[in-house]
Specification:
By secondary structure, this protein is of the alpha+beta class. It has a single domain, classed as GAF domain (Beta-Lactamase, 2-Layer Sandwich), CATH 3.30.450.40. It is built from four helices and six strands; from the N terminus they run ααβββαβββα. Helix 1 (about 5-20) packs antiparallel against helix 2 and helix 1 packs parallel to helix 4 (about 135-150). The longest helix has 19 residues, at about 5-20. The protein is globular, with a radius of gyration of 14 Å. About 40% of the residues are buried. The model has no long low-confidence stretch (mean pLDDT about 95). Bound molecules: methionine sulfoxide. Methionine sulfoxide binds near residues 67 and 126.
């Protein structure tokens, strides 16, 4: 996919996501719809959420193959993004120390923290690709905008 195609897909996706989550009280429903919309639009290998539960992340709504259920804070790409409070882009998962392999087909990954209005991290958006170096600054920019659509929820 070219940069132009990528930007065009994300630009169409963003207002759809804003509409999907607008006025939805049950946060898990929004996570499910956002995962489905992102996955369908960009055709990633795995798209989903892990939600914060104490000192762990727990598997939330996702699209793709079954995945590991619990990720401690600071572990794997997801736990690292949560601990650091920032997006982590991994070009080659085999080179990321402590990467948690839910599928041998996953080659690159991006994990974006989801912040609530009060600034608490409530979840992370995790996307896996079956190609190396799929994610760049454009993905980071738009996926952070998508995560910001979920700021109304303080917990899941
Ligand atoms: N690879 C992730 C684990 C979750 S799966 O990719 C769905 C990690 O290292 O945190």
């Amino acid at each position: 996919m070219t940069q132009t195609e990528k930007i065009s897909k994300y630009s169409e996706l963003l207002p759809q996501i804003e509409a999907l989550v607008s006025g939805v009280k049950y946060g898990i429903s929004s996570l499910a719809n956002v995962a489905a919309a992102v996955h369908r639009t960009i055709n990633f290998f795995w798209t989903g959420f892990y939600v914060v539960d104490g000192e762990n992340l727990l598997l939330g709504p996702f699209q793709g193959d079954p995945a590991c259920i619990t990720i401690p804070k600071g572990r794997g790409v997801c736990g690292t993004a949560w601990l650091k409070g920032e997006t982590v882009v991994v070009e080659d998962v085999e080179k990321f120390p402590g990467h948690i392999a839910c599928s041998s087909l996953s080659k690159s990954e991006i994990v974006v923290p989801v912040f609530s209005k009060s600034g608490r991290i409530t979840a992370v958006l995790d996307i896996d690709s079956d190609s190396l170096a799929t994610f760049d600054e454009t993905d980071k920019l738009y996926l952070e905008k998508i995560a910001a659509c979920l700021k109304e929820y303080e917990r899941y």
